[in-house]
């Protein structure tokens, strides 16, 4: 791979995904909005100089700034455009031939008295072919003229962005009689002359005239849709204009999903420190390995000089020290983080835009469903939502979400709505699982809290450091972390009500319900008072964790989407455990959950509720989800229906899919790792390890991605045992060290932010 600048690929190569989506060869194109285009081109002067094809490109370009512009005015004359709000000037200059007049205009910009345009887009040839009836003399004169213009363009390229647009092919069968002499053979000859002459004197220079040849590829696919055989259809012109915008603006605006023409970001201070830390960990681990190997050689069997017999030391398995395990974990983590950085921060591997088709989403879904059913085993216990079952549930949901992300299925509304149900189901499990633990175990110790917080946040904290991303960027981890703390606070605050205490006196159940009502009231108040919510999370240093793009609105939006789901997970756990304690449900192997009649009725209602399509998918958006209780009830109904379908029949409750459960045990790592080593550009695109072979690329990148997620899960478990010990005094010391680490991190982030500004 040549790596480096991707502008050349953007200007020269690519392919269509479907009919209208253009995919450059090695990078991702950003779709610029009007506001973004204005911000990029503020105080800029852009000039389009050429024939009618350049005029079309001019109109498509200014429509990116102001979509209300109409194509009117003198077609064979100069056309000015100005956006006074952003001080943007875009001019079209009518010069249909490469001749002395065009040379004189370009020369005027090289002289000091005239202001140079910031961007110059030039091109012409078809008029020369038409006027001179396709003669060879006209081609010779074209070469002479462009030879005289080339040094002027190269001189302008030192201070401005200069693009020469090659001529697009024509659809010869559709050309009118007075254009029949414009053949693709003639156009190729003119293009060949332009490419050979331009930059001939500055081939090794960084400041060159950029040859815009990608329009030829676009025209080859779309020219048959032309109305006259000569001019491109509007969609193709718009694609060319968007490419121009990406070439110039990506290095200025730095959009996440626009990797073309973006330089590799410089390493931050925190990233450099992280690199040093991982390097030292690797060196330290290698030193320990060498010391252990040397000790092993010394302890090998040796010959007794007096008796001549061989002495064999007692065989024993060497214990791995805490320091060795710590360095080994950081060593592996350092290598993995290097791969993360190379995939999504360095310009080493290619990236492509997503493109949704029904087959790209539903075929993998069917495939994993078959695999999941194939790997079926008996559960160790037959309780409702037992460990194997919840792992299975997390697993298949995570796989569906991964397929949803890589296929770009968010553009298809019914799929998007069902994925929203899956996200809500994850949060439901959060409420159910943590409530059940605290209610049954009554363990509110610091060790339990620290273990959960470490396992949830370790990978995200490392990625925030290595990938230079804010904590809120990985929104799901802050979400489940905050909800865990809310559940803990609700149950741990005096009076601590647990199952053992409630069994002795039923009044404690009413005390717990009172706590839950207070929690529900607080959720309601915060969800309808954005100001109060923002005040809570805007205090420094809390704001450093929950701000995204300078405010906490995104955090409020994410929290509000499923604000009642965790509460209902807690409520479901309370009701289920109360019924279980009073032996009102049967959880024996093969037994239905209730009596046969009740089980059959509930099962029928659940299946109908689960399968009935959501008739309100049309005209729905996030705004409606926030402000309407209907969608919450819809999500909750589907979650409860699934739980009942999965648990009412005894034979269904007694088996689980080990395939899905395996993925469920690393679901958090899968969700986070996909951001950078499976998808690309922070989930906006797809990582390309093997270009030209999409299916093979997905197989290879998926294999690496899953292996890395599994390894990180094991590293997290190993480090959790070291960093969060059970001994309270040791744990307190570790917490002080962690507090010092985060204080230093905050200090460095402040210094880093000041240096950026």
Automatic annotation (TrEMBL):
<keyword id="KW-0472">Membrane</keyword>
<feature type="transmembrane region" description="Helical">
    <location>
        <begin position="564"/>
        <end position="581"/>
    </location>
</feature>
<dbReference type="Pfam" id="PF24536">
    <property type="entry name" value="NXPE4_C"/>
</dbReference>
<keyword id="KW-0012">Acyltransferase</keyword>
<feature type="domain" description="NXPE C-terminal">
    <location>
        <begin position="22"/>
        <end position="92"/>
    </location>
</feature>
<feature type="transmembrane region" description="Helical">
    <location>
        <begin position="269"/>
        <end position="291"/>
    </location>
</feature>
<keyword id="KW-1133">Transmembrane helix</keyword>
<keyword id="KW-0333">Golgi apparatus</keyword>
<dbReference type="GO" id="GO:0005975">
    <property type="term" value="P:carbohydrate metabolic process"/>
</dbReference>
<keyword id="KW-0812">Transmembrane</keyword>
<feature type="transmembrane region" description="Helical">
    <location>
        <begin position="395"/>
        <end position="416"/>
    </location>
</feature>
<feature type="transmembrane region" description="Helical">
    <location>
        <begin position="473"/>
        <end position="495"/>
    </location>
</feature>
<dbReference type="GO" id="GO:0000139">
    <property type="term" value="C:Golgi membrane"/>
</dbReference>
<feature type="domain" description="Cas1p 10 TM acyl transferase">
    <location>
        <begin position="253"/>
        <end position="735"/>
    </location>
</feature>
<feature type="transmembrane region" description="Helical">
    <location>
        <begin position="355"/>
        <end position="375"/>
    </location>
</feature>
<protein>
    <recommendedName>
        <fullName>N-acetylneuraminate (7)9-O-acetyltransferase</fullName>
        <ecNumber>2.3.1.45</ecNumber>
    </recommendedName>
</protein>
<dbReference type="InterPro" id="IPR012419">
    <property type="entry name" value="Cas1_AcylTrans_dom"/>
</dbReference>
<dbReference type="InterPro" id="IPR057106">
    <property type="entry name" value="NXPE4_C"/>
</dbReference>
<feature type="transmembrane region" description="Helical">
    <location>
        <begin position="446"/>
        <end position="466"/>
    </location>
</feature>
<keyword id="KW-0325">Glycoprotein</keyword>
<dbReference type="Pfam" id="PF07779">
    <property type="entry name" value="Cas1_AcylT"/>
</dbReference>
<dbReference type="GO" id="GO:0047186">
    <property type="term" value="F:N-acetylneuraminate 9-O-acetyltransferase activity"/>
</dbReference>
<keyword id="KW-0808">Transferase</keyword>
<feature type="transmembrane region" description="Helical">
    <location>
        <begin position="507"/>
        <end position="526"/>
    </location>
</feature>
<feature type="transmembrane region" description="Helical">
    <location>
        <begin position="693"/>
        <end position="712"/>
    </location>
</feature>
<comment type="similarity">
    <text>Belongs to the PC-esterase family. CASD1 subfamily.</text>
</comment>
<feature type="transmembrane region" description="Helical">
    <location>
        <begin position="732"/>
        <end position="751"/>
    </location>
</feature>
<feature type="transmembrane region" description="Helical">
    <location>
        <begin position="601"/>
        <end position="627"/>
    </location>
</feature>
